[in-house]
Amino acid sequence: MFKKILLLFILIFLVGCKATKPVIITTKKVPVKPKSQVVNTTKKANIAKPLYTKPVKQEQNNQETEVIVSTSKTVVTNEVIKAYVSQFKDIAMGNMKNYGIPASIILAQGILESGAGVGDLAISANNHFGIKCHEGWTGESVRHDDDSDQECFRKYNNPSESFKDHAIFLTGRSRYAKLFALQKGDYKAWARGLRTAGYATDPRYPDKLISYIERYNLHQYDNQVLDLNYVSNEKQLVEELTLETKKSKSEDLALYEVQKGDTFYSISKKFNLMVDELKRINNLSNNILSIGQKLIVK
Hints:
Radius of gyration: 43 Å
Number of helices: 12
Shape: rod-shaped
Number of strands: 6
Helix content: 40-55%
Order of helices and strands: HEEHHHEEHHHHHHEHHE
């Protein structure tokens, strides 16, 4: 009986073990699938990841740029400045001959005051030297913010009028008289003298002018006038005498030095001459006079 019970117990145990899945314990590592092969089926927004790029210096057409601050703030390239010099160098040299202002100073002031011709005043009023209306100005004008809001600035029909008025402005005011005692080739003294005389309030004004002159070799135009074409007024008059005057070289020439406010008409009346005769004997074809200029009046 006991044996039957024992056999029955063994039979039940064997049936129970057959129904249970065996568990295998191992130390072998299971290979993990590489991340690059893992497919993420979750849909995401199409947002590009921003990339870091090293800052690069910005230039216009591979040209260096600079900021000119005068009556307005202007960003220009060196090619714009060179084009400005090329356009107005002949006018500057002509004014140097007629009025005694160094061409380099004229060009440097024009670059600085007009933003090389692309500043607000240069575009809207052809004003290349930042000259304000001042007392006695009867021409056109524009309003522009400068030291104060909406100040009055002179307006011209074209840039050449601005260059001429700049020369008249300097030669016609006593505060600039000391400048004309300086050597015409000494652009550094002229740059400092303009600041001292009150042309600009910026204490760095002379340094800015000198910088433009030296960077763009503007002094070469002074040399062209001084070395090749420039002669004193008296010598120029003698060299340009008409044939009629040359025939009477033995006679003493009567010379008159132009004063502030003089015109061809007032001078001709003073010496009992016709205006055309006065121009003819001095070999002059325009109406430009400069203070200190000497005229033959017979």
